[in-house]
Amino acid sequence: ATRNVNPPVMGLCCARKAAALSLTRDARAELASAGIRVIAIRPPAVDTRMTAKGPGPKLAPELVAAATIAAIRDEAGEVYPGPVAEEFAASFRNDPKTLERRLATRLPHR
């Protein structure tokens, strides 16, 4: 099953990423017998023109590329490049409900 924790106010983006991850995992299973590897690269916000006006720390595209090359070399199935993605992945594995509550504190007060 696909498991995700969604940052507040990003529901549509999170749904799209969850669907992409599910498709990636399915493709990995279906193509393994043909010797084809499928890797999910799951960075946080990457410093691109699309995210230029967005808040928060952003990962340099070069770091995502390096993590992708390392994933190919290491035969990884899923990669969470950068400290923010690594921390979220670890927090989710250890205690997803606490992570959800922590993310909820980022909601703007109304």
Tell how many strands the DSSP assignment holds: 2
Q: Uncertain regions: pLDDT < 50 for 5+ in a row?
A: none
- Share in β-strands: under 5%
Our count of helices gives 4
Rg (CA only): 15 Å
Mean residue pLDDT = 84
Major β-sheet annotation:
2 strands, parallel
Query: What would the principal axes of the Cα set say about the shape?
Result: globular
By secondary-structure content and strand pairing, the structural class works out as mainly alpha
Helix content: 40-55%
- Topology pattern, helix = H, strand = E: HEHEHH
Task: Quote the distance from N terminus to C terminus.
Answer: 34 Å
Spatial strand arrangement across the major sheet: 1-2
3D architecture notes:
By secondary structure, the protein is mostly helical. Helix content is 52%, strand content 4%. It is built from four helices and two strands, in the order H-E-H-E-H-H. Strands 1-2 form a two-stranded parallel sheet. Helix 3 crosses helix 4. The radius of gyration is 15 Å and the shape is globular. The model has no long low-confidence stretch (mean pLDDT 84).
